[in-house]
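yo

u said u wanted the structure for the complex thing, so here. seqs first:
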Amino acid sequence: MSVLVYINSKNGLHKSAFEAVTYGKKLGDVTVITTGALSADQLATLGNYGAAKVLVDRSVEGEDDQQLTRVIASAAEVCSANTLIFSHDLVAKAVAPRLSVRLKAGLISGAIGVPSTDGTVPVNVFSGKAFGHVKVNASRTIISLLPNSIQPEENGSACSVEDFNGNAGSAGVKVLSTKKPEGEIPLPEAELVVSAGRGLKGPENWGIVEDLAAALGAATACSRPVADIGWRPHHEHVGQTGVAIRPNLYIAAGISGAIQHLAGVNGSKVIVVINTDSEAPFFKAADYGVVGDAFEVLPRLTEAVKKFRASGH
Amino acid sequence: MKILVCISKSPDTTSKISFTDNSTKFDENGVQYIVNPYDEWYALVRALEIKEANGGNVTIISVGAAGDEAVIRKALAIGADDAVRIDTDPTDAYYTAMQIAEYAKSNGFDLVLTGKETINYNGSQVGGMIAEALDQPFVSVATKLDVNGTTLTLEREINGGIEVVEVNTPAVVSCAKGMAEQRIPNMRGIMAARTKPLQVVAPVAVDQMTTYVNYTMPNAKSACKMIDPSNMDQLVEFLHNEAKVI
Ligand SMILES: Cc1cc2nc3c(=O)[nH]c(=O)nc-3n(C[C@H](O)[C@H](O)[C@H](O)COP(=O)(O)OP(=O)(O)OC[C@H]3O[C@@H](n4cnc5c(N)ncnc54)[C@H](O)[C@@H]3O)c2cc1C
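structre next:
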């Protein structure tokens, strides 16, 4: 079976790209389609995760949804792909639905695993409170894979890279400027996340949260009220009405564990809860619990992590 | 400016989620429905603000059975001018989006707004599908939207940052936090909503591209291991040797 994997290489190649190629390889022969300026040598490394070939349309620089839709649709025709794979990021959220209409393909967004023997693909529903098992009724399938859902698998090979003209046409959206927070790990892709809530009492106290995140190499997140009152930026807000994440480790300090918060984080592999209140609902969803004051426990945990990292881990 | 706002119902966020019929159907027993928060708090309220500033008309559209009219009336109480219900079950995102696109095509809107996703199926699919069917640009996950004649200026989330973009109408925009503040309907709004026009439109024939075959629940967590707050070395040791996450 011919599988086309779209990779966003605008900011280099990330783990989510390796996951998408690995996922595609489990379903068939993988051709990758990408745009932008990454060198052929860099793109050839996608062979390591199972790509047989990379097509790159260098005429497209940005992430315009109509241009990408045209390019990916042309690539799907050229390699007769009946399955398309995306990483479920912000580009996929704009482009995959368009392609579903253009290619008359069934779209499964936010997959959390490979298709099972009955052909259904697992996805989160009700904001992570349950799983749905979805089947496609069309001859073409598009799957967008939630980051951190499978492990990239390497095989040590490189692959060929070809220039491709996907007839991108003109962009419908004109980009005026971009703002980027510097040096941060994008939250949805982070493997380790340190999060804090109203229990931290004010934005001036976030130093102890950031210290722990820095010691671990983790991203930072927060509960909704904390973003609403402006203690932290909106993109850090996790939960049912924020970002849904599934890191390996989620450390929550001073967060009560309301059902809407849990919805966005209960896909995490391991949850650590730090709370002064031993009755906080979050402990019911936790793997490890610490009943204690975040202002004492967080610095202590940071020291313990630093000691552990210094011992060569 | 003629604005169409797409509204979906979703279970109240505190609803207990369970399934019936051999785990093939969402159990609606005792479930309270609300207007999907992204549709209501951001898409609808911003549409009303634009109308208040520039004039025009805000129409609500929802794909659903007669029982969903309570949710549509709630949205009308917040302030839209009129509403359309496409009289059919929204079986999947494609089917739903094609119904809305069909109505939008024959009624000509300058702007179609959706929420960034629903909180029950979390697909983020409907907006992009409508845009493709209408052959219009799509700005997804927008956190700010300003109108100047036929030009829209928006901020939207991109991977790892924010982008400021410009697009000409007609266009489709999916709305996220930052765009507007929730509005609580007042008594006058609730009264007025009762008599606002709610047109019922028959569905068009469209294929259903996907089926939710069944549902499962996450495995229950085993008991939480409690760690002495003075012994964080032990927590690190557990995270390394037992949980193997660091
Ligand atoms: C429609 C809807 C959608 C929502 N969506 C979301 C969402 O997406 N995400 C989200 O997070 N919330 C969401 N909420 C809000 C949610 O219901 C909770 O109100 C919110 O998660 C609580 O945030 P919190 O835990 O930070 O604050 P609180 O509930 O105030 O909890 C603070 C916690 O900190 C503890 N604490 C206090 N001092 C200390 C200390 N010194 N050390 C350690 N612990 C301490 C307290 O014991 C308490 O448990 C939503 C609500 C609604 C109605």
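Residues 37-54 of chain B form the longest helix (18 residues). Residues A 197-199, 223-226, 239-242, 253-256, 258, 260-261, 264, 274-277, 280, 293-295; B 13, 37 surround flavin-adenine dinucleotide (CB under 6 Å).
cya
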